[in-house]
Write a structure and sequence with these properties.
heterodimer, A: mainly beta, 4-stranded antiparallel beta sheet, 0% helix, B: mainly beta, 6-stranded mixed beta sheet, 5-stranded antiparallel beta sheet, globular
């Protein structure tokens, strides 16, 4: 039973470029969450999605960031026009239906903006 | 606004002894609490959880205690092993301020080092 998959594991972008981070949840899990960890800090919630729906985006920056979880395929976190402050580890988690608190995390994508 | 706090950045214990990691929270709407362990360059790994209807939950060497009146929880690891060396995060969720149970609020983490 594969765990949460994230790719790429490392992503380097120059300022102004776009970053796309992908997350495939565990089998049977229909809820996906994205978190960001800045250096020396804890994880900060960004967004909670179910298939084709955004449930809670209270942690998403208002500009440049978007997330989707389509009917088919992985969840995508998209960051447009990246800036150096976007450099962080981005973690995806998934949970089974009816248990949003039981989140299992992927290995993360480390984004570096040059 | 740090709603979940781990006030000890690091903890060092001897192998075989007890490790006690502490966590405080400020939002009384939190009613579900979790502990995660994290190694460098990996995602957090779920360890143990507790709901607010309980004050203790045990799983092998790991026990979580919840004191709702003090808004405090702790993770006990007995006996501690060198492989337990990692960063430990506590997290909380609930219908806090209108947001969903899916939103976990994490503490800053405590680095545990277990010496052989």
């Amino acid at each position: 039973n594969a765990g949460v998959m994230q790719n790429p594991r490392h992503l380097v972008r120059r300022r102004g470029q776009e970053a796309r981070l992908r997350c495939s949840p565990m089998k049977g899990h229909s809820h996906v969450y994205w978190y960001r960890q800045l250096p020396e800090e804890g994880l900060k919630f960004m967004v909670y999605l179910q298939k084709e729906n955004i449930i809670d985006e209270s942690g998403m920056p208002k500009e440049r960031f978007s997330a989707e979880f389509p009917k088919e395929g992985p969840s995508i976190l998209r960051i447009q026009q990246v800036v150096r402050g976007d450099s962080a580890a981005y973690f995806c988690a998934s949970s089974p239906p009816g248990h949003p608190g039981e989140q299992f995390f992927g290995p993360g994508t480390r984004l570096t903006v040059l | 606004d740090q709603q979940v706090k781990q006030n000890s950045p690091s903890l060092s214990v001897q192998e075989g002894r007890i490790s006690i990691l502490n966590c405080d929270y400020t939002n009384s709407m939190f009613d579900y609490f979790l502990w995660y362990k994290k190694y460098p360059a990996e995602g957090p790994t779920f360890l143990i959880s507790i709901s607010s209807i309980k004050d203790k939950n045990e799983d092998g060497r790991f026990t979580v205690f919840l004191n709702k009146s003090a808004k405090h929880l702790s993770l006990h690891i007995v006996p501690s092993q060198p492989g337990d060396s990692a960063v430990y995060f506590c997290a909380a969720s609930g219908w806090a301020g209108g947001t969903s149970y899916g939103k976990l609020t994490f503490g800053q983490g405590t680095i545990l080092t277990v010496h052989p």
